Structures are given as C-alpha cells and as structure tokens.
Amino acid sequence: MNQEELITKITQEVMKKFNEITGTEKPSSVTKGKRTVNECESGIIINAPMDLAPYIDHTLLKPDAKQSQIDQLCQEAIQYHFCSVCIQPYWVSYCAKKLRGTGVKVCTVVGFPLGANDSRSKAYETRQAIEDGAHEIDMVINIGALKSGNIKMVEDDLRAIKRACRQTTITKAIIETFLLTDDEKVIACQLAKKVGYDFVKTSTGFAGGGATVHDVALMRRIVGPKMGIKAAGGIHNFEEAKAMIAAGATRIGTSSGVKIVNG
C-alpha cells in the first residue's frame, strides 16, 4: 500500500468514527488517483523559488528576538513580497506600524506554544492582538483535551477564539501534528473546519517536530479543496517548501523565507 492509499484508508476509517461520536455530517468524499507532473493537491503551481513568496509567513517567534531582528524581518517581508510576518503578540503593534501600506500582513500566535491556556485567556489575547493590528491569528488548540478524548472541549476552545475575531480576521488552528496520532489529526482538522477556521496549521515548531508531507496530505484529504493548510516547522529550503505545496499546503510558515525564495 503506497502513501496515498494509506492516507485515504486512515481518513475514511477515522471519519467514520468521528461522525459516530459527534453526529456531524459526512465530509467531502475522499478520492485517490494519479496526478500529473504539473498538478498538486493545493492547486498552486510553483515553477521557480520566487513563486513561493506570496505563500510565505515570514516567521520569528524566538523568545529572545530583538527589535533589530524584528526590523530586519519586516524589511525582508517588504522586499520579497511575503504574505505576512508571524511574530509574538508583544511585537504586533510595532510591526503593524512598520508595515502599514506595504501589503504585508501581521500574523501573531495565541495560546502559544502549548495550547493549554484557559479559553477565556486565549480569547482576551486574540482581541488584544487584533486591536493592536493583527490581521491573522494562529491559535494552538487544546492538545491535552484532544488526546484525552474531550472533543467538546477542543471545539468550544476553537469557537471561543473564533468569536473573539473580526469577520476580516484570518484564523488558523495549530494542531501540533508531531504530538498527535493520525486519528487525532483527522479529528482536529474536522473540528477546525466545522467551527469555520480559514486554515489548519501543522505545528508550532516548538514541540520537537514540524511539518511532513504525510501530514499535509492527510490534512488536505480531511478539509477538502477550499480550506487553507499552513505547513510550518522544519521547512528550510525551496525543495522542502515545494514538496509541502505539492502535498496540499497553501501557506508556508518558516524563518527561512529569504533562503527559500533565493533557491
């Protein structure tokens, strides 16, 4: 059994269990088949490294990041026309002012990196970040609740942050794939889709593992063709980024954006 057949089998089996537990409608049908060289699961065609620029969240989430490094991050995002800068909440207001009028969005993280915060504190953090100028919110789901089988808690947590956002805010649910079984990844993706998130995101990059082609392909099977997928964690070069897009990613979170677009 090849990887694509395995992913399809896992998806079908887990979604049957998920629907029995939650009573939700059956998701989009899961299909399999060969793709041509120029086709990919995301529908995005990448012919050259610079083609990736509009799909990159230029990221600096290290706790010891200095203002000079944030300045450099913003300048590079403007120069290379990256989609956004992804930074800690402390830097949101600063980056929003520096990037105003440039077309580069401000993305920040909520409940980061563990996801174990109370939903009320996550919601407050979200509202404050948006008030400070964030256009996109990457929130970490309650991983412990998911692994404990408390699906309602995970869904309620997702909803609390979604309600705290504006209609124009882009929402991404970080499911931390490295810590989950394939069954749990499927459930997390389906919950994020059910609540109405714009993206599911693989990883924080702080849990010991990052994005894999297997996980991105599995996530694409679950959420269908319209929902966004952000691959993040451990993506360091053009070939790795291109492989994630081919597997179904529509956004790349990386601190190596400049290296990637320069091939």
List the helices and strands in order: HEHEHEHEHHEHEHEHEH
Separation, N- and C-terminal Cα atoms? 34 Å
Number of helices: 10
- Report the uncertain regions: 25-39
Strand order, main sheet: write it out. Answer: 1-2-3-4-5-6-7-8
Number of strands: 8
Largest sheet: 8 strands, parallel, barrel
Structural class, by secondary structure, is alpha/beta
Strand content: 5-15%
* Helical proportion, percent range: 40-55%
Radius of gyration: 18 Å
Offer a quick outline of the entry.
The chain has 263 residues and is of the alpha/beta class. It has helices at 3-22, 67-80, 92-99, 119-132, 143-147, 151-164, 182-195, 213-223, 238-247, 257-261; strands at residues 56-60, 84-87, 105-110, 136-140, 170-174, 199-201, 228-232, 251-254.
Task: Give an overview of the whole structure.
With 263 residues, the protein is of the alpha/beta class. It is 44% helix and 14% strand. It has 10 helices and 8 strands. An 8-stranded parallel barrel has the order 1-2-3-4-5-6-7-8, surrounded by 7 helices. Helix 1 packs across helix 7 (182-195), helix 1 crosses helix 8 (213-223) and helix 4 packs parallel to helix 6. The longest helix is centred in the first third of the chain and has 20 residues, at 3-22. It is globular. The two termini are 34 Å apart. Residues 25-39 have low confidence and may be disordered.
